[in-house]
TrEMBL record:
Keywords: Coiled coil
Domain spans labelled NodB homology: 87-281
Protein name from the UniProt record: Polysaccharide deacetylase
Species of provenance: Clostridium aestuarii
Transmembrane segments: none
Amino acid sequence: MRRSRRRTRSKSKWIGRLFFIVFVVLLSVAGVTEAKVIKMQRKNGNLKTQINDIETNKKNLAEKNKKLLANIEEKQNLYKKKMENVKIAYLTFDDGPSSNTQDILDILDKYDIKATWFVNAHKNLEYLYKKIDENGHVIANHGYSHDYDKIYKSVDSFKENAKKLEEFISNITGKPMSKMIRYNGGSNNTKSHRYGGNDIMTKIIKEMDKEGYVYFDWNVDSTDASKYRQDKDKIVSSVLNYSKRKKQANILMHDLNPKTTTVQALPEIIEGLQKQGFIFDVLSENSYKPQFKKVK
């Protein structure tokens, strides 16, 4: 009996200890779990705060962006209004370079003006093409050759002539040539009819349009091509008189060896145009395009 009681007491003690251990473990687990819960709650609180901050920042950025866009639109509108009243002169020189090119460059440099050259191919003058390009002027296409009988006998011969010049200029400047072109004699010339028929210019313009070329005629004639060497004062008066009522003046001049009076007239032309309120720019494919012959 005594042994039985002892055993019973011993079991009771172990059971009690076991319950105590389980209780302690449960408390410990509960404590850990509670700590994790508290930690997670804190994290959630931090995340909510961060989300709120992000939302606030988004609203602030949206407001700033709205104000910035409104400011940009206002400036664009002001710029458009200003540009509506701006008069732009484009000085263009055909057929060069020549013995006059350096003098023209020096004058343009003096007035800090850039011009556009519609050039032909002149071997042994590569250094002048480079100077035109390096000085920030634009070189555009006037064909490798200016011989009407060769270039206007067919569409293919004209296109080949233009592409040959492109290759010639690109080899000199090291960069692709612009797609701006001026047809020899203008887009409405009739000399071409002798060699390719009455519709040759229409055919050429359509084909060159397909090839991505943009053609420019002119709306101010300096008249320096009317004579072998035109009178300097005649050149000046022609340019200034024709430009008076223009908002955009595309001025035709020539850069050939005999055209020394064109060089002499240039300073007076520039100063006269400035007095008329003109600023100066180079042509680009997006510039105003005087075009004599419209082809559908």
